[in-house]
Amino acid sequence: MAKLELADIDVTDKHVLVRVDFNVPIQDGKITDETRITAALPTLLDLLHRNAKIILITHLGRPKIGLNEDNREFSTEPIATALNQKLGIRIKHVDDCIGESVQKAVDLLENSEILLLENVRFYAEETNNDPNFAKQLAALADVYVNDAFGTAHRAHASTEGVTHYLNTCAAGLLMAREIHYLSMSIEDPARPYVAILGGAKISDKITLIENLLDKVDHLLIGGGMAYTFLAAMGVPIGNSLVETEKLDVAASLIKKEGFSDKVSLPIDHITGREFDPDTETQVVDEPAIPDGWQGLDIGPKTVAAFGERIQASKTVVWNGPLGVYEFEKFAQGTIEIARQIADSQTVSIIGGGDCVAAIQQAGVADRITHVSTGGGASLEFLEGKPLPGITALTDK
Questions:
Q1: What is the set of active-site residues?
Q2: DSSP symbol at 289
């Protein structure tokens, strides 16, 4: 993954098109979570310090095509206000991302100024990776920087297409950090190497499990997907979630070399009568779950067993919650594992998505080595798939 990085390129006096991931939640014109904006600040500060002329481009939500009153909620204008407050400088905003008005605003940019373009997904050509649209975006700049890891698994015009029309395409600081830690976990992890997988469905993680079995020392599986494995092993799971159409897949994975030696499944459970935050609960002190109950979280013995593996590890990668953490009664297993990771001396990598919310809920985000900003992107990276937004960057 030897791609050009920010430190490798000259940006002084140059127009730099920066693909950021500012797909933030907005309610009544106010941003309710600025995490993704904050994550991009190091790249922006570096470019400002080096007297670049910065053009920011992002998507926001899934708007209909075209900017109109019905689509106004997807405008990037509130993001300009938030950036203004964080950086202490005026952020210019333009109500399009290509065309004459945009080119005029770009031409007026001075060194160490920032222009935020309108939502790139107002154009269908963005997700279609239309070459002409990508060429128009590229024409705005001398240099391209991609700092949007969360969209790196999509071959869109602003993430992949644009690179065909600019000679210098580099990873931003956030992108480079993502590449560094996720590559390390695949190519050269400190050992023992432990992976923790959760989430509802085994179907979402089949490729990841197959890839990790060859690389990890231990694989800890929880969440709804664990019950499909237990069912495939003949363990009674009561009314727990099971993907019946994937039982044969689970059975074939169980037979794979290394599964029995490396994989740990829940040995006890927090169960509920119904899938409801206020349901009656009980601890089931063994792998088998009685009829009328469903497993909704890992139990205390599983937390302790998983914790021992974590404490002995040198590298931990975690993707997916281990219970229905949205329900307070069934969040404890996930929160306890988050704390176990934070309390360990291991290099810890959290693979984006729901796990990010879980570690924030546990209050330990600042004690994790690396929290990925891309759920789908980090999952595909760990599966060993090439990500178009990274592959397209200029090689060193």
A1: 36, 201, 353, 376
A2: B
